[in-house]
Amino acid sequence: MAQKTALVLIDVYNDFLHPDGKATAALNDSLTNSDTIVHIQQALKAARAAKIPVYYSLHQQYHDGKYAGFEHWNPMLRSVESSHSFEEGSFGAEIYKGLEPDPKNGDVVISKHWNQR
Fold first, then answer.
1. What whole-number distance in Å separates Cα of residue 71 and Cα of residue 56?
2. Which residues share a beta bridge with 108?
3. How many CA within 13 A on the CB side of residue 55?
4. 2 CB contacts (<8 Å, ≥6 apart)?
5. Strand order of the sheet with strand 7-10?
6. Is 11 left (phi over 0), alpha (psi -120 to 50) or beta?
7. What is the largest CA-CA distance in the chain?
8. How far is the CA of 113 from the CAs of 25, 39, 57, 77, 102, in angstroms?
9. For residue 14, which of 81, 111, 100, 74 has the smallest C-alpha distance?
10. Angle in degrees, 0-180, between the axes of helices 36-49 and 24-33, rounded to the nearest 10
11. This model's pTM is above 0.70
C-alpha cells in the first residue's frame, strides 16, 4: 500500500518565526500562545523518525520588480511589497534554524508559482 502521510511545512521563514522577523510582531501572540515553533520542531522530528516525507511550501521571495504587472493583490502581498518581507538573500528569507530541509531525508521543496496573467 502506498504511503499517504506527509508533513507539509508552510512558510517556515525567519520573517514569520524568528523574533527579528519582519512579520513576527503581527504573529507573536499566536506563536507564543500555541508554542508554534516547539510543535513544528516536534512534528519534524517525529516525521523524520518515522520516515514520513517532508514537503516545504515556501512563500515567494521578494525582489525589486517582483510584483510588476501583478493583478491579484491582497493585503498580505501589499504588506510584503511595502516591507520587503522574504527578500531574496536576506535573513528573513532563510528557513528558521533547525527546520531546514534535509536532502538526505528526501525532503522536498515545492516549486513556487504565481497565478498571474
1. 26
2. 55
3. 9
4. none
5. 7-10, 54-57, 108-109
6. left
7. 48
8. 27, 28, 11, 14, 22
9. 100
10. 70
11. yes
Q: Are 86 and 40 in contact (CB under 8 A)?
A: no
Cell of 112: 513556487
C-alpha cell belonging to residue 1: 500500500
List, for residues 64-117, the tens digit of each pLDDT value: 887 788 787 888 778 878 888 888 999 999 999 999 999 888 899 987 666 554
CB atoms under 10 Å from CB of 61, counted, come to: 18
Question: How far is it, in rounded angstroms, from Cα 39 to Cα 28?
Answer: 15
Residues 29-48 have pLDDT tens digits of 888 899 999 999 999 999 99
What distances in angstroms separate CA 107 from CA 44, 58, 84, 100, 110, one per listed residue? 11, 13, 27, 9, 10
Look up residue 9 and give its three cell numbers: 511545512
Distance of CA 7 to the CA centre of its chain: 13
Q: Phi and psi dihedrals of 67, rounded to 5?
A: -100, 10
